[in-house]
Design a protein that fits this description.
The protein has 313 residues and is mostly helical. Helix content is 81%, strand content 0%.
Length: 313
């Protein structure tokens, strides 16, 4: 019953978002822009989206190896595509993670290893959403709108808190995990702290970091390609600051698969740089549609996986 209420609430919130968009903006203009857009740039964006999924699977594979979980690169790619498909049809934008955990467990891992590897992969992605804008603000010279300063301050504070948390983990992770296990009898938290420390402070961590930043760079370039297809000029340095923040906010589980929340955040974020709401809405809707298309291989991989599983049983 609770699951259906949760599903219905997400669907209702998404409906409210799009009801507002249709009432406030001329949605026919968005559809017209999609029709007359330069499709070559959309094809390039789609290829980038597929490449991003492969790189995400590779990162998950590396993280699994670091914590001694059993996950080959081919299995990681299959499970990642299947997870992306379920992300599109489940209420939460991270619903596919639960499917990835289940499949990693079926692949021969314990539930703990399967869960931790997937959660750590998600955490590395979220850390990139935080640090890429911070580094971009430092590296690039960008004329920021005064209204953007509050967001810049918030992301800087979040980065400082994250760095402080990583430092605490490095210095006191072991004793902290043992204390939690002893006092609160929460063995899974102690286990998670241990594996998180292994992932963040490992000689192979640089591979995960490089992949994470490369994944984020591709996501920025992909959005810029979509904007280019509509002849909307978004400077690269602005994209490196704004786009990670937009997707970080979009991960908040308020709407169905992020729809509505992502569009609202895109309108607000790009609006700071004088990009119209209609153009921002066109970019976001196009990204959402490309994301659905890129997840379609997950259907066939899922059916193939279930077919093999049935034969084995």
């Amino acid at each position: 019953m609770k699951k259906w209420l949760y599903f219905s609430a997400k669907l209702f919130v998404t409906f409210l978002f799009f009801f507002y968009f249709v009432r406030k903006y001329n949605f026919n203009t968005v559809l017209s822009q999609l029709y007359v857009s330069d499709h070559v740039w959309l094809y390039i964006a789609f290829i980038m989206l597929l490449l991003q999924i492969f790189l995400m699977a590779t990162r998950w594979h590396f993280i699994s190896n670091m914590i001694k979980a059993n996950l080959s690169i081919s299995s990681a790619v299959r499970f990642m595509f299947i997870g992306q498909f379920f992300n599109q049809i489940m209420p939460s934008s991270i619903g596919g993670d639960a499917v990835r955990i289940w499949m990693a467990k079926q692949n021969g891992n314990s539930l703990g290893k399967a869960s931790i590897s997937t959660i750590l992969d998600r955490i590395m992605g979220l850390l990139t959403y935080i640090f890429v804008p911070v580094l971009s603000i430092w590296i690039f010279s960008v004329s920021l709108n005064q209204n953007f300063y509050a967001i810049e301050s918030a992301i800087n504070v979040l980065a400082v808190i994250t760095i402080f948390g990583i430092l605490i983990l490095y210095l006191f992770g072991g004793p902290l995990g043992k204390m939690i296990e002893k006092i609160f009898h929460l063995k899974w938290i102690a286990f998670f702290i241990k594996e998180l420390k292994v992932t963040l402070f490992n000689s192979e961590t640089w591979r995960v970091l490089v992949l994470s930043f490369l994944i984020q760079l591709i996501q920025v370039l992909m959005l810029l390609c979509i904007a280019k297809s509509f002849k909307i000029p978004i400077p690269f340095n602005v994209g490196m600051i704004l786009i990670p923040i937009i997707f970080l906010i979009s991960t908040i589980p308020l709407s169905f698969a992020g729809w509505g929340l992502r569009e609202s955040t895109m309108i607000m974020g790009l609006g700071f740089f004088n990009i119209s709401a209609i153009n921002s809405l066109s970019i976001s809707v196009s990204y959402g549609l490309l994301q659905i298309l890129s997840s379609l291989p997950g259907i066939f991989l899922w059916l193939q996986y279930k077919g093999k599983k049935s034969l084995n049983e």
